[in-house]
Amino acid sequence: KRVLTLGPPRDDEGAVHNELARIAMQRGMHDDARSHLRAALAVEPLGPEIHANLGLLASLQGNPAAAVPSLRKALSLSPGNAAILIYLAGALARTGGPGDHEEALMTARSAVEISPDNTLARQLLEEISRRATTSK
Questions:
Q1: Which of 40, 55, 82, 124 could pair with 70 as two cysteines, CB 3.0-4.6 Å apart?
Q2: Taking the CB of residue 101, how many other CB atoms lie within 10 A of it?
Q3: Does residue 5 surpass a pLDDT of 80?
């Protein structure tokens, strides 16, 4: 926080706010995280990490449906980002909307294709696939 008070606006102000938001989320301080993410978007509206963190915040607050648009925006700004694909697949898998499960499965597959050694991506794909099998 001290970095933000040191002087005139900085080139990395959005990144600093985004990092403060990430720390606030880890500590369960969701209102602080939201404030920092809003400040980050004000100076860096096309920051994929900022949009991804907005999605993560919505997921942490138990609202995966609200997370999906932010995660889709993040992915559009950083196509092929395995971490964002994982977050999006997880949110879609929990929404229960029409077609969301199929999209979650395709998204998780994309994450595994991009990052085949990513254990989290493989585990998520297995979990989503297992749900598809048991729901039929």
A1: 55
A2: 18
A3: no
Rounded to the nearest 10 degrees, the angle between the axes of helix 30-43 and helix 13-26 is 160
pLDDT at 9 over 80: no
Mean pLDDT of 37-53: 95
Q: Which residues contact 97 (CB under 8 A, 6 or more apart)?
A: 65
pTM here? 0.87
Separation CA 48–CA 84 (nearest Å): 9
Q: Which two tokens stand for residue 70?
A: 């932010």
Residues 6+ apart with CB under 8 A from 71: 51, 52, 55, 84, 87, 88, 91
